[in-house]
């Protein structure tokens, strides 16, 4: 017997926005699906709680917040005379609801590590296609919007652009949970300033200062939170653990793996179907990694056990960051000292001493642009409209180099 839709009209109490309404029956059903419920067990900010202990919110919370903002945006656009049908509203809500469903454990940290051939966006699309089969084609328009193939391009921009509901939520939410006030953005005002011109999302000129604040907040959050050097150190440690696991597997070493991790990490001559890939991936979350780390900390391989124990106990790499590459002589000296102190081979030591780089910009001049609409009908890119920000700096990709080595060296 079909459940009454009245029983699915749920209200979620969110600490950032207050009460969030579940807008339709199909949205409720998708939220209840085990694929989506898995997002409760994946932290939005990966290992960032190693620096900001409050940053333990989940992909599940973030996604509900994003569809709340989307509902406000749609109501605002309709009030300005733009036609968005109830079918389109439901479809774009589903597209946004599922935009993060392809994320693996610890979000971006292990992207393409467990499953090398797929990005989280590609996996999200696979999940959407599978759910579309399960719900008898009810997600077809949502998929079209997600892929930017639907007739109304602005709907895709609400889901994925340089000013989408995803970014507006994660900046506010991540700022709230980390306690970093620099990330606070005026999402309500930005949403009220949204309009549509020639099928493109634009911001009315009186909202330009809120956009400038949004770009600055995003820039500050990246370097103060997302790419904080201690967060980078923790992420590099987790990446090196998986690098070592894969190396041991290639060398036919016996090592503990959950069934789902074994599915992806152990070599196989079988060509698995996308359904098999999804089923196994959908059963992996942060808890699998933590459980594995506990087991790996007792492995006979010294490199793996040491790295795993270090992450469990937050004994992270010492990390230095600078604007230029590190001197080769300095790196070689650290490698030699670490090799002697830890009694490791040259190859093993590279798991403990290494250099790499990180890069980011706040605004891309090559992606879809944030367009400012003036009363006289003129549409201007924010990079040209802003008279306060040096957009050449915000749009420039900044490269920073880091060097990691054991704290005791």
Descriptive keywords:
alpha+beta, 4-stranded mixed β-sheet, 2 domains, Hypothetical protein af1432, 3-stranded antiparallel β-sheet, 11% strand, Growth Hormone, Chain: A, 409 residues, 9 strands, globular
The chain-level mean pLDDT equals 93
Name the structural class: alpha+beta
Helicity range: 40-55%
Strand content: 5-15%
Topology of this structure?
Elements: E1 11-14, E2 18-21, H1 25-32, H2 34-37, H3 59-79, H4 86-97, H5 120-134, H6 140-146, H7 153-159, H8 165-178, H9 187-192, E3 194-197, E4 200-204, H10 208-226, H11 229-250, H12 259-265, H13 274-281, H14 286-296, H15 302-312, E5 318-322, H16 328-342, H17 346-349, E6 354-360, E7 371-373, E8 379-381, H18 382-385, H19 391-394, E9 398-405
Parallel strand pairs: 4-7
Antiparallel strand pairs: 1-2, 3-4, 5-9, 6-9, 7-8
Helix pairs in contact: 1-4, 3-4, 3-8, 4-6, 4-7, 8-10, 11-15, 14-15
What does this structure look like?
The model has no long low-confidence stretch (mean pLDDT 93). A four-stranded mixed beta sheet has the order 3-4-7-8. Strands 5-9-6 form a three-stranded antiparallel beta sheet, sandwiched between helices. The radius of gyration is 23 Å and the shape is globular. The chain contains 19 helices and nine strands. The protein has 409 residues and is α+β, with helices and mostly antiparallel strands. The chain has two domains: 7-226, Hypothetical protein af1432, CATH 1.10.3210; 229-359, Growth Hormone, Chain: A, CATH 1.20.1250.30. Helix 3 (59-79) crosses helix 8 (165-178) and helix 4 packs parallel to helix 7.
